[in-house]
Amino acid sequence: MINVGVIGVGSIGIHHARIFSGLKGVHLAGIVDSNATRAGEVASRYNCPVYSDYRDILPAVDAVSIAVPTTLHFSIAMEFLNHNKHILVEKPVTTSIEEADRLIEEAEKRNLTFQVGHLERFNSGVSMISTMVDQPRFIESQRLSPFLGRGIDVDVTLDLMIHDIDIILSLVKSEIVDLRSTGARVLTEHIDIAHAWIEFENGCIAEAVSSRIAQGKKRRLKVFQRNAYLDLDYQTQEITCYTREKGSVKKETTRPEEKEPLKEQLISFIECVRKGTRPVVSGHEGKEALKVVLKISGLVKNRDLFI
Description:
With 307 residues, this protein is an alpha/beta fold. Helices cover 35% and strands 29% of the residues.
């Protein structure tokens, strides 16, 4: 039995608690949140102990998922690593590359699992399209959301675009040789809309667009490769494949078995803890995605295109 704790039970962490409470071979040893009322409600719902200070849960757990504001990721994650606990940290992994490097070093030194919560990697559509991609030449991603008033303490690059950057990096597997971006601050004090253009050493080009001020919600990934065009709708997990055969274009739509991405992510984390295997998105992959989005944000700010 693996004893797991959830640090932070806000809009994301509450679902970590829900899923862990029902996983076979897992004991939800407690949840931690500074909001006593909310913490009490969640603890009552899933019949587990509640703590207001994350240090108090240390003796009770083997592993934790950390779903607190990004500015707190490093200090909390390091505390658990220093006490030989396995960690899953929600994206973005930290606020800086230096912090990410220190966590990676500590986890490796202690032979601990360090996973980063890039949820879309466990989307069934992403898993399937990853097996279909072969030497992509152009990738286009769109992640658009209406203004909800949450996640606005960081740039949209860190809030939304980082999902697509992580997936693009996993599909292309080549060094970036050029990066350009533009964007604007519109309704908040941070970047609300961003466009990035990425060129890779192997010739592939990727374009990523993210907005939290769109009229509707859209999650799309398009991959263009020789004689084929793949179109993934993240929301339905449906893939449409267009291929060229004997001078004509053939269209085929596939929808893999629908699964809850967060549940698949947490199952994978527990398996890594149990078997000592490398996570799908380790601290290294989390750091690389962070490095790219920080550069994108920096380029936007340097262009001073804020409205």
